[in-house]
Design a protein that fits this description.
alpha/beta; two-stranded parallel ribbon; 8 strands
Amino acid sequence: MTKIQSNTHFRYEFFEKYVIVEAFEGAVIDIDAAQITLKDILAYYNGKDFTLISHRVNDYVLDLEAYSSKILKKVRSFAVVSNNPAAKQRALLEQDRYENSFAFFTCLEEAKNWADSFN
């Protein structure tokens, strides 16, 4: 059974090995918003490894400084899902700021399969 949670910036859905996050339309994601969200997610997984899947279905602003958070280092792997070419270009910039496994997908099911393959 999955659990759905949200805050003012994101909706997230928890699974055994991964969490799918969707930013709300028009959200501004800065380092503070990222830290609040990651604290919620880390509390759910309580030290277990997990993958964060960013399902990019809405338009929002992501400050690249959000990747500067030390708390992000606790995320085992990170996937971006979008069929928007501009989102892929943006993800390439994000990938340079993330130290662990990072992948880009156009299909959510492919990202889920990728995340499941880590354990």
